[in-house]
Amino acid sequence: MSESAARTGPRVVALGPRPETGLLSTTAVASTNRARVLQALADHGPLSRADLARHSGVTRASIGGVVSGLLAEGVLHERPAEASGSRRVGKPSRPLWFTDRGPLGAVVIEPGTVDVGVVGPEGQVSVRRSVALPPVDSTAEFDAAALDAIRSVLGPQQRLAAVGLALPGFFGPGGEILASTTIDVLPGSRLPALLAAATGTTVVLEDDARALALGQRWFGQARGVRDFAALQIGDGIGAGIMLNGRLHRGPLVATEVGHMTLDHDGELCRCGQRGCWETLASLRWLRRRCERAGLPGAAATPHALTELAADGDAAGAEVLDEYAAHVALGIVNLFHVLSIPLFILHGPIVAAGQRLLDRVRAHVGDRTMAALNARPVIVMDENSTRSGLLGAAAAAVTHQLGVTL
After folding, report:
1. Is 153 found in the same domain as 294?
2. Are strands 342-346 and 377-380 parallel, antiparallel or unpaired?
3. What's the rounded Cα separation, in Å, for the pair 143 and 135?
4. Given this model, what pLDDT does residue 88 score?
5. Higher-confidence residue: 1 or 213?
6. H or E stretch including 310?
7. Same domain for 161 and 22
8. Residues 206, 199: contact at Cβ < 8 Å?
9. Closest CA to 201 of 227, 166, 162, 232
10. Any idea what the CATH number is for the domain that residue 303 is in?
């Protein structure tokens, strides 16, 4: 793809479900083969021509022509030949991968904070700044404060290939923000359009939890994994769920697992319902529970609570185990309904480390239906504090390459 095609000017794109199409015309076959090749790389990482033919379903006879065209356009490039221990005759294969089209901007909106960065094609974060937002009373004030924070890092002079914007909310196909359960002033925000104008490039909008799943597929522990869930557990709970290699998207462009009911007569949630997973396993629950247990306010984080339990504090150990059990409840429900084999935990829970992870795994094991004869794998995110930015960048590159994840 040419540089002019890659930089189409400021606009907003909301990632979401794509409409079903009918039979392919004869002229569409070449485009379909091209899309399959790009999709195979997105799914599996760098591949040789032979592996591309096998994974994409494009015949060996056709793969050469498809790849030649993508190389000529600069969409793909050949990496150096990989060393092999085999005695295969002939030249070693050179894996194909996406060409660097320039740096990607990444913006993550969180309650009270904007995280901004510049991300390279292999997931390297070259610039990063986290900016605390002042208290605001209106959507317009929020837009102004957030845009000022973003412009302190990103601008037209950087010639960004695209900008990924991840935020906690429902949005429509045109990028209009419809609702948010964690940021009251977010609905009606014009931030996506304002950001596109400020950076002079395409802004790709994605839900923050689903962006985490995209980041894991492109840059993390789930590359090549077809089925997994990226769970974000903080002040709210969200999930990006990948099934059969595709990100699950509903018609509302939202996946609100934090609001599945786990306690019929439970606490009132911010969404207006009772007993949501968020009322049992979010940081808001943890803060209230620590207060009831007489623990100091500083203990009301997963990391601090784990340290307290490790030092022999009985109340701290009890609250930690209760928290792990509540996290496990939601994971078990998702496993039973969707047979998700891998859960990657994100957010402040990661800082709690192995002790909390072991308790979550134990509770999941206790509650998983024995007849299934299987347990999900549960791990902590290894991208640490970069995960949000990598997710936003992954949303941008997913759109930029025209692949479906």
Report:
1. no
2. parallel
3. 12
4. 53
5. 213
6. helix 302-310
7. no
8. no
9. 162
10. 3.30.420.40
